[in-house]
Amino acid sequence: MSYLDGGKLSELRSKLTSDEKKLKRIYRAKSDRYHKQSVVHSMVDDLLEDDWEQDGDPLKYKTKLKKPKSHSRFFEDQIWCQMYDLGFRTLNVDENFHLPFGKGAGQSQQIDVIAVSSETILIIECKSKRNRAKSTTIKSESEGLRQKIDGFRKSTTSLLGGNRKLKYIYATRNIKIDPEGTDAQRLYEAGAFLYTDSTYDYVQGLIKSYKSAAEYQFHALIFSGTSISKEKIEVPALQGNMGGETYYMFSIEPSTLLKLSFVLHRTRANEAELPTYQRLLVPSRLNGISKFINGGGYFPNSLIVNFNEKKHKLEFQSSEKSKSSKSKHGILKIPNAYAIAYLIDGQHRLYGYSQSDYKETNTIPVVAFKNLDPTIQLKLFMDINENQKAVSPTLRITLEEDLFWQAERLDSRMKALRSSVIRLLATSEGSPLYRLLSIGEDKAELSSKPFANALSKSSLIPKATQSKFAEGAAKVSLYNSDDTNHDREMKRARKRIYSFIALAYDFVIEQLSVRNTNTYILSNRGTFGFISLIANLNKFMSEKGLLSPTSSPEERIDAQRKYLKALCEKLDNLDEEEESELTEKLGQGADTLWLRKFQSFVSQEFPDYNPSELTDWRERQDEVLQEEARKLGTQIERALKQRVLSKLQCLYGSNWELEIASIKRECDRRVSEQQEKSYKEGLPVKDMDWTEQFFITDYKKIIEAHWTKTHPERREGFKTFQEEFAIDLGLGAFNSKSEKTKWLSLFNSWRNSWAHEGTKDKGLNSDEVSMVRKIHREIV
Q1: Nearest CA-CA partner of 725 in 703, 747, 756
Q2: From CA 421, how far away is CA 398, in angstroms rounded?
Q3: What percentage of the chain has pLDDT greater than the value 90?
Q4: Phi-psi region of 472 (alpha: psi -120 to 50; beta: other; left: phi over 0)
Q5: Are 497 and 557 in contact (CB under 8 A)?
Q6: Three-state secondary structure of 111-159
Q7: Measured on CA atoms in the order 624, 626, 630, 632, is the torsion positive or negative?
Q8: DSSP-derived pairing of the beta strands 120-133 and 303-307
Q9: How far apart are CA 762 and CA 767, in angstroms?
Q10: What is the distance between the alpha carbons of residues 520 and 516, in angstroms, rounded to a whole number?
């Protein structure tokens, strides 16, 4: 007997459609941000008073009007369109679909979206807010939900027949629900699925990358662990052991494996499935593989999967063992369930079959492990991909958390801590950077790389070698290096560092104008400077005793407020020249410039904050100091040439050029190249003596090669190269030849800073100019 009577069934069927033309028409309307209609001209004035607006020029008999949809309606429409894009071809025609969950009066619920395929039914409840809201309780929605879902299942069976899998989905937009909180647990316990902003974005990415094949990954996501059929899939297989792990080798139809597999894409939507590591597919590559297969092509290499036996167990029935091998052959019985086979390698090959004519008739080779440790699974992926398509920098940074969290090496664990902090900043719904920061395969406005660079160089995470932390790191970092329970302290430090950075962003975003927040703080160029600044301020106050290792993130930010406020006031009042200096600086050196500028803005208001690296940078920008170094350096170079060549002539007479013939040949080559360059650039070609192409490194070679050479006639007053060119700059030991000629290497690097246009911003500091003065006294 049907659960629903004939009248109710007729009513519900009228609210569903499988007509492709009608579905396309509804899709066009729902994908538009506006309600639209065409009305006779006489109705226009009344409708304009009801928030409608004219949409283009009037037609002959009618006027087109439009009105923005409410945020909640547009969200429901977006979910409906997403289900259509996923391939569902039976959907509700409007929002007036009331599905009974019981036979009593009032025991029905308005359903926002119902999507039906040949195998599944999705009942989707949509909840949204216009702006991102604080955590919201959904206790009333989740109470009695399991019984409701049972009732919905009976109703849809009466309505649609068949043996489809049903899933109740609670879809949210701009609503914070802790995935580990009580509300989420109520949904999970009822068998429902929490469909967050991150899930929506991820599924949109699947549709873009996988096209019609997206349904396989989508069903695996929604129905993970749910049986497709009680009958197990039986395949002939070999069982073996490798590296202490059991594995199976078999062949299987792509259509079957597509339903069983799940690709662990590193996205916010898959956080519960750690470790996740895969990249999204490249659509053009997927299409190419499909064409290759349809043209008779095939791939002889195996796909690699890991079976998760948490809910469903593999069963291997072994035949008689071979006498010549430890491998066994037999029948492998695979549970027929969604998402039980994690696809480690070969997703392009497998999904290439999803659009192929051969997905039901070909069989593909598979190497299958079971219950691999997450770290081993991740390492296997990294090893396989090491010599293939490079893992993106963002994904590599993200994977470090899972790869190194339990590492023996201290420096590796600190990489994992850095990765974990970035993940929290990107994925925590309370983070000011939520959905702004790229993580794994989720692309956003901000790159992970500047965060990784800043955290690596800052003192928030202590510097470490393989086995010990850097001296003094414990005092200023937010990691307690004295705690021997590494996992516990990693988690505590992650929370401290994340909270500290999040609070700093919250404060500055509140202080700065929106334009300047986006330009200087929420930008890739500003990230390194801002993270490094707050870390440096934390170090400054810790060293002054204003903060201690036990200070909370809130106390640390409270101590920084006046400094950060000074930064914001300066950024909101930059003159045109200062703004151009920052925003026009690109490439190498931009990170340092932004950090030093941020530090100088704070230091101008609070002179007690004057870190040594800022002083050093200011000196290197001092043009008076640089001009002095440039002038002295030119004189040193001229005198050095005269003295070195004179000494060679004194030692070797007319044969002096033969004595340094290899250097002469190199100088002749430089002369030729310079003349060729002038010619090709349309400049006059000048005659040039080979000695005009001496480099400082040439003088150094000559000096060291003839270091102790004395005059053959033992001329009185003659000084050796050693006696004449050993200059002590007070840099430590002064015994060996290399120590006594070190000044030449230093002078060469300083010369480059004033001689080359590309290094003009890498000037000398006052200590280095003092050493140039000393060299000048000795040489000129």
Answers
A1: 703
A2: 10
A3: 53
A4: left
A5: no
A6: ECEEEECCCEEEEEEEEEEEEEECCCCCHHHHCCHHHHHHHHHHHHHHH
A7: positive
A8: unpaired
A9: 14
A10: 6
Q: What are 126's strand-pairing partners?
A: 171
Which parts of 465-583 fold into alpha helices (H)? 473-476, 486-511, 514-516, 524-543, 553-571, 576-583
State the Cα torsion 476-481-483-489 to the nearest 10°.
80
What domains can you pick out in the chain, each with its CATH number?
Answer: 6-33+69-195 (3.40.1350.10), 226-385 (no CATH), 393-619 (no CATH), 623-779 (no CATH)
- Report the distance separating Cα 31 and Cα 18, nearest Å: 18
Query: Among 695, 705, 703, which residue's Cα sits nearest to residue 723?
Result: 703
Q: Which segments of 341-400 are extended strands (E)? A: 341-345, 364-370
Q: Choose among 248, 239, 382: nearest CA to 322.
A: 239
Residues 6+ apart with CB under 8 A from 293: 352, 353, 356, 358, 362
How far the first Cα of the chain sits from its last, in Å, is 110
Bridge partners (DSSP) of residue 67 are 35
CB distance 336 to 253 below 8 Å: no
| Residue 133 near residue 176 (C-beta atoms within 8 A) | yes
To 5 degrees, how large is the angle CA 588–CA 589–CA 591?
105
Instruction: Please check whether residue 531 is in contact with residue 449, taking contact to mean a CB–CB distance below 8 angstroms.
Output: no
Q: Which amino acid is at 191?
A: G
- Is residue 273 very low, low, confident or very high in pLDDT (cuts 50, 70, 90)? very low
pLDDT-based confidence at residue 459 (cuts at 50, 70, 90) = very high
Q: Which residue has the higher pLDDT, 236 or 202?
A: 236
Tokens of residue 142, six digits: 């989740």
For 265, the 3-state DSSP assignment is: strand
Distance CA 271, CA 194 (A): 13
Q: pLDDT at residue 664 above 50?
A: yes
